[in-house]
Design a protein that fits this description.
Organism: Okeanomitos corallinicola TIOX110
Strand content: 25-35%
Shape: globular
Protein name: MvdC family ATP-grasp ribosomal peptide maturase
Number of strands: 16
Number of helices: 9
Length: about 325
């Protein structure tokens, strides 16, 4: 079936729910047709064709018995891009080439949509995902940041451990793939003990981020949407089992609470997001027992469903309005 009206393209994956549904509902209520593209279903279940000639270029996309053209796409919500799902019938020796060609084809598709309104442009999201750049920019705009060391030298990690009086956490610079086994303390933001560093020579193979452990009164998830700010807070004593990272699977956390950011933090937040050119970002902060705000990171595609659900915040509506602005 060919869709005849203008659409907003929602780029995600087949395991995505709630947030994607809320935005689709908000767009529909505003009289706009959303079209969901599950990137992991390409190329097996999504048919994508690019047409190039002297007069014009366009793509057609067919998925779930619906056909659209790039000429219909007025806005794009870039939520997630996942690798293709291939079954056992594809020989391993061909898998890498098929994934590579599929990614290249999708990149051409994104390029064909460059005239649409994006939340957000993929290049800006990729640039903003650099955690070291985040820390530098956060410091430049006046945010307090944790004392941080990135190293592949075991001795440097041990010295830093002493420097921060044994109050140290570790994390990765890049996001985990869905296939990585999260079995060691390296994978989530985790507290580091001295014995963890006794045999840390494996750092030779993979540099790591080490930070001072910031004392917490609460931890904030701050959602920025085109100048609007929505905040959820977790009180530290409520989720004591997740002292390092409440995102870890199996960690029981308490209810989210409303939180008002000080004007100075809001001002710096606007400047920070402007430097990355982002319309959307999910930022994490710690509020210390002395009420200082410490910036941890920004995720240009980060989650917000839990605070919309628990706090009845109109985040989906704000994203829909931004896509249509």
């Amino acid at each position: 079936m060919h869709i005849s009206k203008d659409i907003v393209l929602l780029i995600t994956h087949s395991g995505d729910f709630f947030t994607i549904d809320r935005v689709a509902e908000a767009l529909t209520k505003k009289g706009v047709q959303p079209f969901r593209l599950d990137t992991d279903k390409f190329p097996l279940e999504v048919q994508l064709t690019a047409h190039f000639d002297q007069s014009k270029t366009y793509h057609t996309l067919e998925y779930n018995n619906q056909l659209i053209s790039t000429e219909q796409v007025k806005a794009v919500w870039m939520r997630r891009v996942w690798e293709p799902q291939f079954g056992q019938e594809l020989a391993p020796k061909f898998r890498e080439a098929c994934i590579r060609e599929s990614k290249a084809t999708l990149n051409g598709f994104w390029d064909s949509l460059r005239e649409a309104r994006w939340v957000d442009y993929l290049e800006r999201m990729d640039a903003a995902s650099d955690k070291l750049r985040q820390l530098r920019v956060a410091s430049e705009v006046g945010f307090q940041i944790p004392q941080t060391l990135i190293t592949n030298k075991a001795e440097a990690a041990r010295e830093f451990f002493q420097q921060v009086n044994g109050k140290m956490v570790s994390k990765l610079l890049t996001a985990l793939s869905r296939t990585m086994e999260a079995t060691s303390f390296f994978f989530y933001t985790s507290t580091v003990k001295e014995e963890d560093l006794q045999d840390a020579e494996s750092l030779r193979y993979c540099p790591m981020v080490f930070q001072e452990q910031i004392p917490k009164k609460s931890e904030l998830r701050v959602i920025y949407v085109n100048g609007q700010v929505f905040v959820g807070a977790l009180e530290a004593d409520v989720y004591a089992n997740a002292k390092a990272d409440w995102r870890k699977p199996g960690v029981e956390i308490g209810a989210w609470r409303h939180h008002q950011l000080p004007d100075e933090i809001l001002r710096r937040l606007q400047i920070f997001m402007g430097k990355f050119g982002l319309s959307y970002g999910a930022l994490d902060f710690i509020v210390t027992p002395s009420d200082e705000y410490v910036f941890l990171e920004v995720n240009p595609g980060g989650e917000w469903g839990m605070i919309e659900r628990d706090l009845d915040l109109p985040i989906a509506d704000a994203i829909a309005n931004t896509l249509l602005s």
